[in-house]
């Protein structure tokens, strides 16, 4: 039923009761598990100063997982351009691409990766938020350095991450494939993709529009179990709705006792309806629907659940059900 490649976004949730180093150790096991299942690629997101998400540089996680796998594509989703010198990013990912030919992606995003203003300013060495023009120049410089300065051999595959029409316009102008953050701002997906396709200019990186859509996806044998696994992320999202960024990632047991307000429950239900949560049949149907509605060339699943085994099991159920539905 799903006729596009399936991939994964790893945001490295740090579970309450564990240490960040334990989350870090799970990285290779997760990559190896998804490689066995036949997933196309894994991307690592850049985050800072969060009790729920590890501050692990995507370039380091990419290198670590690439050394312990053999065929799955790996990269950033994304590394955040305002926090880094363009030449540094080009050197880092150019080196990885030379070490692991045809396996490395460079997904570039704009946000600071933190809700804390002091942390954002520290990352930018005291500078304020980047402007549209500065971001455009940074992305263009990264691409230029990859070709003209680094040139170690095989280049990483560049992507532009977007959750808005502005990001889509930049991806179109630079001729880059686009990764839509449907898991963050689902209401922007269709308008952004319409603009991207309408304004796309071919480049050395991409001859025609190419779309990846990232979807929050939690699959379990039953609806009740899927809802149980979604509980911890519901608590984090409810905190963000209140403007609270210092929310730990709780256990499912703790999440089950969280006192959500009626307004929070309504907002969470509205968000979940645009993602993919439930049994294998329901999830695969929803993913196929999203692929059709968006014209996606690839779907990337992000599965923020508490346990590594449950996370891998979610990907396994989806893959097995999807393959069973397409078998002759």
TrEMBL record:
Residues 18-297 form the Luciferase-like domain. GO terms for molecular function: monooxygenase activity; oxidoreductase activity, acting on paired donors, with incorporation or reduction of molecular oxygen. One of its GO terms (cellular component) is cytosol. The keyword Ion transport does not apply. Signal peptide: none annotated. Coiled coil: none annotated. To bacterial alkanal monooxygenase alpha and beta chains. This is Monooxygenase.
């Amino acid at each position: 039923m799903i006729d596009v490649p399936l991939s994964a976004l790893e945001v490295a949730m740090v579970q309450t009761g564990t240490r960040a180093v334990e989350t870090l150790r799970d990285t290779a096991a997760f990559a190896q598990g998804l490689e066995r299942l036949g997933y196309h690629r894994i991307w690592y997101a850049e985050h800072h100063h969060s009790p729920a998400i590890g501050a692990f540089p995507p370039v380091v996680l990419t290198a670590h997982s690439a050394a312990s796998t053999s065929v799955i594509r790996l990269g950033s989703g994304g590394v955040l351009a305002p926090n880094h010198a363009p030449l540094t990013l080009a050197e880092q990912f150019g080196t990885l691409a030379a070490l692991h030919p045809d396996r490395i992606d460079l997904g570039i995003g704009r946000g600071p990766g933190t809700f804390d203003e002091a942390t954002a300013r520290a990352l930018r060495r005291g500078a304020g938020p980047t402007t549209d023009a500065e971001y455009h120049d940074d992305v263009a410089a990264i691409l230029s350095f990859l070709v003209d300065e680094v040139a170690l051999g095989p280049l990483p595959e560049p992507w532009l991450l977007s959750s808005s029409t502005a990001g889509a316009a930049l991806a179109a102008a630079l001729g880059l494939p686009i990764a839509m953050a449907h898991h963050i701002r689902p209401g922007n997906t269709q308008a952004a993709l319409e603009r991207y396709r309408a304004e796309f200019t071919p480049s050395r990186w991409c001859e025609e529009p190419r779309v990846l859509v990232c979807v929050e996806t939690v699959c379990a044998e039953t609806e009740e179990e899927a809802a149980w696994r979604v509980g911890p992320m519901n608590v984090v999202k409810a905190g963000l709705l209140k403007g609270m960024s210092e929310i730990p990632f709780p256990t499912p047991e703790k999440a089950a006792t969280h006192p959500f307000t009626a307004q929070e429950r309504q907002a969470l239900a509205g968000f979940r309806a645009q993602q993919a949560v439930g049994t294998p049949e329901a999830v695969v149907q929803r993913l196929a629907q999203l692929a059709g509605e968006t014209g996606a060339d690839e779907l990337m699943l992000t599965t923020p659940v508490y346990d590594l085994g449950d996370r891998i099991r979610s990907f396994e159920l989806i893959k097995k059900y999807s393959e069973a539905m397409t078998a002759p």
